[in-house]
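Q: Can I see a sequence and its folded structure?
A: Here is a first one.
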Amino acid sequence: MEPRIQYAKTSDGVSIAYAKTGEGPPLVMCPMSSEQFSLFQQIPEVGSYYERLGKGRLLVQYDGRGTGLSDRDVKDFSLEARVRDLEAVVQSAGLERFALYADGLGGATAIAYSATHQTQVSHLILYGTFGRAADVMPRDRLLPLIELCRNNWEFASQIFADMSLRESQPEVAVKIAKSLQAACTGEVRAEILEQGYPIDVSDQLAQVKSPTLVVHRRGDANMPFRRGQQLAAGIPNAQLVPLEGTMHVAFLGDTDSVVTAIHEFLGEGGAAQTRVPKLAADDVHTILFTDVEGSTALTNRLGDAKARELLREHERITREALKAHGGSEVKTMGDGFMASFSSATKALECAIALQSAFAARNESADEQIKVRIGLNAGEPISEDEDLFGTAVNMAARIAAKAAAGEILASNVVRELVAGKEFLFSDRGDTELRGFEDPVRVYEVRWREDD
C-alpha cells in the first residue's frame, strides 16, 4: 500500500514530504542522501528491511529537500538545512520523544540534531556512517563524481548504485540506480555532495546524551570500519556492534544481524539491555559491580580515543554476559557496571563468565582489560530505574577491594548459594569504607586450575 504523504514546512519555507506508517513507539528515519523513500522501498530487498525495522513501531520517513516529493527548487543543502528538514517533520508529526535512525550522509544530520535536541531523542542509531565527510573520500576523488552527476546523471547514478553491489547484487544495483534517477536531478545530487563535503560533526559527538548504537560492518567497502569506531569512541556511552561482511548498505547482506542489533537496542522482545524490575519490599536481589582496573592511567597512556575503544570492549562483553545470565543493567559509570540479579546463582555464574571472557580476550590482545568484580545481596530500594541502600553500597565497596581478575562476594551471597558447585576462599573480616563493622568477604575461585 502506498504511504499517505503529508507535508511539513521548514523555518526557511521548504515543504518536506513525509509519511507515518504503523503503530507503537516512534522511529524517525533520516534519509541517506537523495533517495525517495516511497520509490526506494518498492525495491523488494529495501522494502523488506524497512518493514522488519519498523515492526511494532510508528515509522516516520521523509524526503530531504530537493528530492522525492519534497520541494525540488532548493539551493541550500547544508547540514543546517538538513537539520531544519528534520525539525519540521518532527514538529508536524507531533513527536515529543522518539528514536532516530540514520545511515550514510544522514548520520551527520542525526548527530547534529541529537546534540541540540537532547531531550527529544530517546535512542540514536547510526549505521555505516561518519562524523567528518572529508575522512570518507579525498576531495580530488570526489570532484570527478560531482562533475559526472552534472554531465551524465544516468551514468553517475549507476556508479553510486554499483558501489559494493556490482559483483554480488547487480540486479539490485540497476533498480537502485533507476530509483536515484527518479528521486532527483543530477544537479541536485551534485550540490548535495558539494555542500556535504565540509560537514564535520566531530565536535558535537560529546554533546549527544541519548543512548547510542553504532552498527558497522568490518569490511564495509565504502565506509571504512574505523569511521564507526571513531563515532562510538566520541559519543558518551555509545555501543559499537561490529558485524562481519563487506556490504555497505544495511538492507543487503546479513540483514538479520543488523535488525537484531537494532531491536535489542530499542528493547524489542526484552532482549535489549534490561531495566531494573520493580521490586517488592521483601525482594532479595544480588548486586554485581564491575570496575576496570587502572582506567585513568589507561587513558593517560593511550589517549582518549584508544582508551575509549577498550572500555567499549568491556561494555560489550559485560552486556553480553548480563543478557546470557538474566542480569539487569542498572547503570554504567564509564569504567564499570552496576547490575542486579534475582538469583545469587545467576549472578555468580555471570561473574565467572565475565572473568573467563576477559581472560580469553587478554590472551591475544595487545592491550589488557583487567576487571575486578564484587557482589552482595540484600533488599535494595528501587527508585527511578536505579537501586539504592546498604546492599548496593556494600557491593560497591567489596568490588573496590578486589584485585584485577578477582571476584569477591559477601558472606550473604555465599550462604545463598550453599550446596551449589561454587568454590570460595575465605578472605576474612574486611574493613569497608563507610561501614563500622568489618564484613566477611570471600573470593570466588573461577579459574580451571582452582
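Q: Show me another, different protein.
A: A second, unrelated one:
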Amino acid sequence: MLSDEVLRDLGQQMSRVPGVVGVLLGGSRARAEHAEGSDVDLGVYYEGSLDVESLGELARQVAGPRAQLTLPGAWGPWVDGGGWLDIDGVAVDWIYRDVDRGADLVE
C-alpha cells in the first residue's frame, strides 16, 4: 500500500507538469474504504494543453520504463485519457479530466 505521504508527494510532482491544475484522490482510497489490494485513482485535472511528454517522463520515473500514458481524448470526451501504472506493486490509475470541458456544464 502506498502511504499518504508518497501519494501527496506524487500529486505535488504531477501538479508541476505544464497544464495540470490539480490532482485529486478518488475511489476507495478517497472514501477511506480501501483494502490492502485496492488500486489508487488519481484524477489529473488539466486546463488548456496538457504536457503529456513531461507527465509520461514522471510516470516512467515512478512506475518504470514501460509506463505509458495516452494522449488526451484517447478514452473519450469526459474521462479522456490517462494510464494504468504499477508503482511499488500498487495499481495506480492516472485519469485525465479536462477542466474546460467541465466548465462548459456550469455556464
